[in-house]
Amino acid sequence: MTKHVAVLMGGWSAEREVSLVTGAACVNALKGAGYDVTPIDVQRDMGALMTRLYPKPDAVFNALHGRYGEDGCVQGLLDILAIPYTHSGLMASAVAMDKPMAKRMFEMAGIPVAEHVLATPEEILAGDVISRPYVIKPANEGSSIGVQIVREGDNGPVMDDGMVGSPRMMVESFIDGKELTVAVMEGKALAVTEVMTHRGFYDYDAKYVDGGSEHRIPADVDDDVASEAMRLAELAHETLGCRGVSRADFRYDGERLMILEVNTQPGMTPTSLVPEQAAHIGMSFQELVSWMVENAEFDE
58-88 burial, b for 16+ CB within 10 Å, e for fewer? Predict the structure, then answer.
């Protein structure tokens, strides 16, 4: 019997457009793999969503990004409905999305993190809360939404208008060097990719605008550095209680390897970082999304 898969995409977070691209790619791949697929553009109406989820699909492919889609909210709803879904469960999703809490857990597990503090926008605007250079980022957004680097000698505003009014911001020491990322699938690291961009760091445009970044796989680092990055990515996946596929991002300055965050809902287009690493080990995009559906779970 053909398995019915509902693909949740869109949503109303700042990452809606990215989610629609991910969702469309997954819908096409799952249809090509022989699944009966129902795309669902999620709106801020849980009653309508629950109606679309009846009769219950055999699994949900969660292609939502950002708040409410990857922070445990929709995962909790799917747990209540007892519908298996891809990616991590409620607890891991919530903790990974909350950057300060995730860093606290990384530190307890012995995973190196950069110096960081939690501050309000008012405190940040009043003066440097840590030594420059540093990065300001919302405590609970993805896709580098609202991220800003403050360097020595910068005279412009330390926060743009869109960031003012956020209740919590994380200020983190900027680690100059290589941007490395590692996909973890069922607890096993796949590869190490070096992400290169002329924009100074892997921001939203570098991730999603054509020509914004270049991916080098395997990364141009020594074998011991690559092995350590893969070990730390696996440890971070385990520490947060992730399942399915996650992606850990690091900075490497030639001496120190520091974790930035774990993304429990990484981008899933054929040219995204995780599918690139899967292809590197011989797994097609269609095989990857099919594996994710076949290993979907819910928390009882």
Answer: bbbbbbbbbbbbbbbbbbbbbbeeebbbbbb
CA distance 268 to 25: 7
Higher pLDDT among residues 126 and 263, named by residue: 263
Residue appearing with tokens 């680097």: 149
Is residue 263 part of the annotated active site? The answer reads yes
Strand order in the sheet with 59-62: 36-42, 4-10, 59-62
Integer angstrom CA distances of residue 203 from 59, 78, 92, 149, 206: 32, 31, 24, 10, 5
61 three-class SS: strand
pTM of the model: 0.90
Task: Specify whether 143 is catalytic.
Answer: yes
* 137, β-bridge pairs: 170
Closest among 74, 68, 26, 71 to 49, alpha carbons compared: 74
Q: Which of 182, 294, 266 is CA-nearest to residue 229?
A: 182
Catalytic residue among 13, 15, 67, 194: 15
Q: Is 247 a catalytic residue?
A: yes
User: What is the tens place of the pLDDT at every residue in 132-190?
Assistant: 999 998 887 654 566 889 998 787 666 665 555 567 889 999 999 999 999 999 999 99
Active site residue 216: no
Residue 278 confidence class, pLDDT cut points 50, 70, 90: very high
